[in-house]
Amino acid sequence: MGGYYININIRTDDADAVRREVIHAFADEGFRLERDDQASQVADNDDLLPDDDDWYGVIVSGAAEPGWVTVYVEDWADSGLLTRLLSKALDAPALELWVADDIHWGYNYSESGRVVDRFADNPASVASTPEEAELYIGDPTALAGILQTTPEALAKALADARATAGKFVGSAIDGLCDAVDLPFDHVFTGYEYFLTDDPEDYAQDLEDWPQFRHLIFRHPEKRERLEE
Predict the structure, then answer these.
(1) Residues 66-121: pLDDT tens digits?
(2) What are the tens digits of pLDDT across the range 135-154?
(3) Most buried of 50, 164, 191, 203 (most Cβ within 10 A)?
(4) Distances in whole angstroms, Cα of residue 81 to Cα of each of 117, 165, 227
(5) How far is residue 76 from each of residues 8, 54, 141, 227, measured CA to CA in Å?
(6) Which domain of life is it from (predicted)?
(7) 170-224 pLDDT tens trace
(8) Which H or E element spans position 23?
(9) What are phi and psi of 195, to 5 degrees?
(10) Helix H or strand E segment including 70
């Protein structure tokens, strides 16, 4: 089985502001911040994690050039809501990127808290009707605020991604990363991998790894997710 993961990429160079808004979003729903540690220390020492299951983990990256901060959530179900909340609070573009089984992927792009574009390499796999599938074709012009290339170049990258749907997604996601200048090593991983992979890999691949923070929130009573 391939990897399943999701991450939220905020177009900003202020990692502290992103971290504060993540804490604020969870606090508004009754989640209490218990720990805020350097992620590299948590990856090296799981004694820093609670012994019980009554907690929720989030990782916030440092700011990577040319200005992206990535948020990794423990629960996929919360990613969409948190993307919109952060985009609105920070008044910043946000690109939520997901990977399924290492052979399918897509994104949801938000501005000012509103989803303005969606893409899936195989729209039929995420839509229940042909009409809904049309919403996941991807509109390169909608990403004009973060594009570092022409809409035509992004359109070609998305077309190539659709043509290779069902194959390993690495090169297709790399095409998107090139188009918006998003660090590939930030997006080609998810929350759980930081706690199970060799931390030395991240120390070598992520220049901002020392700035990554691991947040632990305590669940409010009878609630485990941000969005319920």
Answers:
(1) 899 999 999 999 999 999 999 999 999 999 999 999 999 999 999 999 999 999 99
(2) 999 999 999 989 999 999 99
(3) 191
(4) 15, 26, 7
(5) 11, 17, 27, 10
(6) Bacteria
(7) 999 999 999 999 999 999 999 999 999 998 999 999 989 999 999 999 999 989 9
(8) helix 15-28
(9) -95, -10
(10) strand 69-73
Q: What is d(CA 125, CA 188) in angstroms, rounded to the nearest whole number?
A: 21
Residue type, position 38, single letter? Q
And the tokens for 31? 């989640």
3-class secondary-structure state, position 35:
strand
Beta-carbon-side half-sphere exposure of residue 25 (alpha carbons within 13 Å): 27
Alpha carbon distances (Å) from 192 to 43, 91, 142: 10, 28, 31
Q: Are 181 and 153 in contact (CB under 8 A)?
A: no
Radius of gyration of the chain (CA): 17
Rounded CA gap, 223 and 228, in Å? Answer: 8
Is the pTM here over 0.90, yes or no? yes
Q: Are the beta carbons of 18 and 12 closer than 8 angstroms?
A: yes
Strands 94-100 and 104-111: antiparallel
DSSP letter at 41 equals: H
Query: Mind giving me the DSSP string for 189-211?
Result: --HHHHHHS-HHHHHHH-TTGGG
- 60, pLDDT greater than 80: yes
Residue 186 token pair? 């930030």
What three-state secondary structure class fits 10?
Answer: strand
